[in-house]
Amino acid sequence: MSDIVTARTFGWMEQSFRDKRAAGRKLLVPYITGGLTGWEDALRAAAANGADAVEIGLPFSDPVMDGPVIQLASQRALDGGATPVSILEQARSLDVGIPLAVMCYYNTVHHAGHERFAASLVSAGICAAERRPTSLSRGLWHMEQYCTSRRFSP
Q1: Which CATH class is domain 12-21+28-148?
Q2: pLDDT exceeds 60 at position 121
Q3: Exactly one of 3, 19, 55, 79 is catalytic; which is it?
């Protein structure tokens, strides 16, 4: 496969942010918990109303590093049957024209395996990941290596 990476994969968010900041713009990046009823419509509305990117939260059963609002939203999503796999499946249909990122706990990355997790993000149109705890850098490095060593289409 080619080492060329399409614009909607790794690096798209960073370049988009740099371009907008260079033009003197401030950035708006809302957080939406994936799996909640109506989360896809909320994401589309955010994109249609000026969001520069959206961070999709992948709910986790023990969100100790999140505040009470995100903890409650995560629990509601999990109670409704949301899983990382189901959220990424739903994200595949989101064609909003702005970068999408996920926020997740490292346990989710580790459970799936670094390469498999990175591949699932890219195939869902996700171009960035923030994972907690952030002191574990191997998973992000692996995603960068995975995304830059293959060619992906949005």
Answers
A1: alpha beta
A2: yes
A3: 55
